[in-house]
């Protein structure tokens, strides 16, 4: 149907032309996300200042879904507070882990969790591969929880 096709186009576009696919040189946080099933991985970079995500970007190698999801994630959390971004992540992470407490080692995922995931990532029209779609979100969460990088140069 039309909506499905529209979503598909959006995803394909994000997968092919990912937004914020770069390494900001003023990023003060970073974290790696890796899908052990395929070896795909992203680095997520944040400029986190006074609890606000002033910049977010990513680089790395992933499939179309993980790349599109990462791209959309950067657009969703840009300008949000770290708390807001974490709340987004944790809401659906909780749903995801309901039946499987092994860290992100999903078995089948229930409908509700899937719906939430799709809203979050925009990956609505795929028979979702959850690990792909959540890869960048996990890295984002890790970056928020991490420590500031020891800056090479203080440019302020
Ligand atoms: Fe599902 Fe992490 S366990 S998103
Ligand atoms: Fe590797 Fe999707 S197949 S992240």
TrEMBL record:
Residues 7-96 form the NIF system FeS cluster assembly NifU N-terminal domain. InterPro entries: NIF_FeS_clus_asmbl_NifU_N (IPR002871). The keyword Isomerase does not apply. Keywords: Plasmid. One of its GO terms (biological process) is iron-sulfur cluster assembly. Gene3D superfamilies: 3.90.1010.10. GO terms for molecular function: iron ion binding; iron-sulfur cluster binding. CDD domains: IscU_like (cd06664). Pfam families: NifU_N. The keyword Isomerase does not apply. NCBIfam families: SUF_scaf_2. Belongs to the NifU family. This is SUF system NifU family Fe-S cluster assembly protein. It comes from Azospirillum thermophilum.
């Amino acid at each position: 149907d039309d909506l499905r096709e529209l979503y598909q186009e959006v995803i394909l576009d994000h997968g092919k032309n990912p937004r914020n696919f770069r390494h900001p040189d003023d990023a003060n946080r970073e974290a790696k996300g890796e899908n052990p099933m395929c070896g795909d991985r992203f680095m997520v970079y944040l400029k986190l200042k006074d609890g606000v995500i002033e910049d977010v970007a990513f680089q790395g190698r992933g499939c179309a879904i993980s790349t599109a999801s990462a791209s959309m994630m950067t657009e969703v959390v840009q300008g949000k507070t770290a708390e807001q971004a974490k709340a987004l992540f944790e809401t659906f992470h909780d749903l995801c882990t309901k039946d499987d407490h092994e860290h992100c080692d999903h078995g089948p995922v229930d409908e509700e969790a899937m719906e939430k995931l799709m809203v979050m990532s925009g990956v609505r029209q795929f028979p979702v591969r959850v690990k792909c779609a959540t890869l960048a979100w996990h890295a984002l969460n890790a970056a928020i929880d991490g420590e500031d990088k020891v800056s090479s140069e203080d440019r302020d």
